[in-house]
């Protein structure tokens, strides 16, 4: 028998994060990461960094799409020499995004030989598995951290299961063999990832790097593996954590796998920066991974980047494609306008628009949105009521509905958000 006095259902929302807050800085500009800062979106270029102009252009595209930090490959002398020019070009274009240098194998030498590169970068990504083995690895890791500490740069210690420290892995496998009930091989791999990150972080702090500016990542390519590793890592430290499913793949597979893994962790309050590591499909823009990451955070209610467009999926009542075309047109228009609107219309990213296809849910959804339109379904009268702030404002008819509705959206934005500028 159902209780007469039901308990209130808890409000939905992600658990609070418990990481410490650090800074990624360049000049007098700052991006906070961790703690009470928003979960940040990060991306990475796929240009040849030695091509300073091409790399700067792609960074600008990623930043305009919503990437708040951008990582670039620094793998040789030519790339290192180009970094200061990339920073200079971005500053000229007014692109305020910090640059992260991605180093493997020879980072200690590049940072030492090219001090202008070390200065222009805001953050260094160091992979403990790729800095050398034994004493040599300790020295080379130490060189990079000393430079970061002296220049007050942030460092991401990024462990990857494809390039684990083999000496550490061998040590943990030997320890596992001594257990009465040995762990599964995957569990040893999890432990190796976490131990590598934590031991490297402790070493970096002992050298003099500010612990608040140490960020950790332990990347794998399996959804369940990533969740297990980060859940354990978050229990064992309070460093800010970077989330990403490495080699996620392309298209639907990469999108779904990344969203599945990251959403679980973010809901649990784990993760301070995220990247959706998509393999671009032929002809696909690099910015697609930024849009997916932003959409993921917005879907979870953690961030608001662009106005949302609610649209029905269509059914037998909506054999016309008018509502699909209008929904896409409005969504594309809102996204394309955001780089200008962010400055001109403060708060516009929270706008909710509904484009519905028939009378079943159309009026109701439109009333819940800030501005909505309920288009006629199959067999319905050729009229489209428009709702503004929950009230029916007018009805559109004829062939120009799409153009008229877009103008109504423009007028609403100007009236509501223009006065806040």
UniProtKB/TrEMBL annotation:
Pfam families: GcpE (PF04551), GcpE_C (PF26540)
Cofactor-binding details, from the entry: Binds 1 [4Fe-4S] cluster.
UniProt keyword list: 4Fe-4S, Iron, Iron-sulfur, Isoprene biosynthesis, Metal-binding, Oxidoreductase
Known EC number: 1.17.7.3
Co-factor requirement: [4Fe-4S] cluster
GO MF annotation: an example: 4 iron, 4 sulfur cluster binding
Family: Belongs to the IspG family.
The protein's name in its UniProt record: 4-hydroxy-3-methylbut-2-en-1-yl diphosphate synthase (flavodoxin)
Source species: Hydrogenophaga crassostreae
């Amino acid at each position: 028998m159902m209780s007469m006095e039901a308990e209130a259902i808890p409000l939905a929302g992600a658990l609070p994060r418990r990481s410490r807050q650090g800074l990624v800085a360049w000049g007098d500009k700052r991006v906070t990461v961790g703690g009470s800062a928003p979960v940040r979106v990060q991306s990475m270029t796929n240009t040849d960094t030695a091509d300073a102009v091409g790399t700067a252009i792609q960074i600008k595209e990623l930043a305009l799409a919503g990437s708040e930090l951008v990582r670039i490959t620094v793998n040789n002398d030519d790339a290192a020499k180009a970094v200061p020019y990339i920073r200079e070009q971005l500053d000229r274009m007014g692109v305020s995004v910090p640059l992260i240098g991605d180093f493997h194998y020879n980072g200690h030498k590049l940072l030492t030989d090219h001090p202008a590169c070390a200065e222009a970068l805001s953050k260094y990504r160091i992979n403990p598995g790729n800095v050398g083995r034994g004493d040599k690895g300790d020295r080379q890791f130490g060189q990079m951290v000393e430079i970061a500490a002296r220049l007050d740069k942030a460092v991401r210690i990024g462990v990857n299961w494809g390039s684990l420290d083999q000496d550490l892995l061998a040590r943990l496998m030997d320890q596992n063999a001594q257990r009465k009930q040995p762990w599964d091989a995957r569990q040893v791999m999890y432990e190796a990832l976490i131990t590598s990150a934590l031991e490297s972080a402790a070493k970096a702090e002992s050298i003099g790097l500010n612990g608040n500016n140490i960020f950790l990542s332990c990347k794998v390519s399996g959804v369940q593996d990533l969740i297990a590793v980060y859940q354990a890592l978050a229990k064992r430290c309070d460093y800010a954590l970077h989330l990403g499913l490495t080699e996620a793949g392309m298209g639907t597979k990469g999108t779904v796998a990344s969203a599945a893994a990251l959403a679980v962790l973010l809901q649990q309050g784990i993760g301070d920066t995220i990247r959706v590591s998509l393999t671009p499909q032929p002809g696909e823009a690099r910015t697609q991974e930024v849009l997916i990451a932003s959409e993921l955070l917005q879907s979870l209610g953690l961030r608001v980047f662009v106005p949302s467009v609610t649209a029905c999926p269509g059914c037998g009542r909506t054999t016309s494609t008018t509502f699909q075309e209008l929904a896409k047109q409005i969504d594309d228009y809102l996204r394309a306008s955001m780089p200008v609107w962010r400055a001109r219309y403060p708060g516009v990213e929270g706008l909710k628009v509904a484009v519905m296809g028939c009378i079943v849910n159309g009026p109701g959804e439109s009333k819940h949105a800030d501005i909505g339109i309920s288009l006629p379904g199959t067999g319905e009268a050729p009229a489209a009521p428009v709702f503004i702030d929950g009230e029916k404002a007018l009805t559109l008819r004829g062939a120009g509905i799409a153009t008229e509705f877009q103008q109504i959206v423009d007028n609403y934005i100007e009236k509501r958000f223009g006065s806040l500028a």
